[in-house]
């Protein structure tokens, strides 16, 4: 089983959405993944994240914000993906064969639901490509380059 950790600063929005989207893609593509998310600090899962994920049938109501140290076997992941620049800078060093990726997404916090949906949809595209690459035995995308404009308001 391939283990994936998705990191953000507060584990309240982007990393929570990416975790759910990655699990969903793995389920649909038949890829055996153990997916977790964490933050450099723990806060709470934002209601807007729960709302826009529920629109896709993905339930974040049982998700909790956690730090890296709250994740089972935190030093043993095949892939560590940071989804914000702050987490990329604070990301701990991993021993062994861990592959790091940085897919920076705009922080939707404080924005409209349309902004949240745009970030969610970008993540859906990125993490589906990530899981598809694993299924195909290819290298996962090294960066997130397809970043259409996200509404600011």
UniProtKB/TrEMBL annotation:
The EC number on file is: 1.20.4.1
State the Gene3D superfamilies in the record.
3.40.50.2300
An annotated Gene Ontology molecular function: arsenate reductase (glutaredoxin) activity
**Protein known as:** Arsenate reductase
Query: What are the entry keywords?
Result: Arsenical resistance, Oxidoreductase
- What organism, scientifically named, is this protein from? Deinococcus soli
Highest taxon of the lineage: Bacteria
Q: Does the keyword Oxidoreductase apply?
A: yes
Give GO BP annotations, semicolon-separated: response to arsenic-containing substance
What InterPro entries does this protein's entry cite? Ptyr_pPase, Ptyr_pPase_sf
Question: Which part of the chain is the Phosphotyrosine protein phosphatase I domain?
Answer: 2-133
Q: Which CDD domains match?
A: LMWP_ArsC
Note one Pfam family from the annotation: LMWPc
